[in-house]
Predict the 3D structure of the following.
Amino acid sequence: MAMTEEEKREIAMMTADILSKRNEPKISPDWRKLSDEIRDFIKSRTANTNIDGVGYTTIQNSIYMPIKYVLGLKDVRQITADQVPTARKIFEFIKELKEENE
């Protein structure tokens, strides 16, 4: 049985879709949202205060390291949607401690 042109186009579209998804980063959208919040927090802290010797990356690492340690990850980009609530708790805890000590 020969395939119709429509069936061939449909198969081509499905193949193209699969191939395009293969190249997409596999980072959780929930983690992206939280990491954006962390970025905004850090930028607000470094823009409004003069922290001698402490730059953006140092602050970011100070937040990311406990998250990676608790979740047992080598890279924060490995965080799954299920792990984001724990990462958020850690971030909120760090943020709260920082605010208490200012």
Remarks:
- The chain has one domain: 29-100.
- The first helix runs from residue 5 to 22.
- The mean pLDDT is 85.
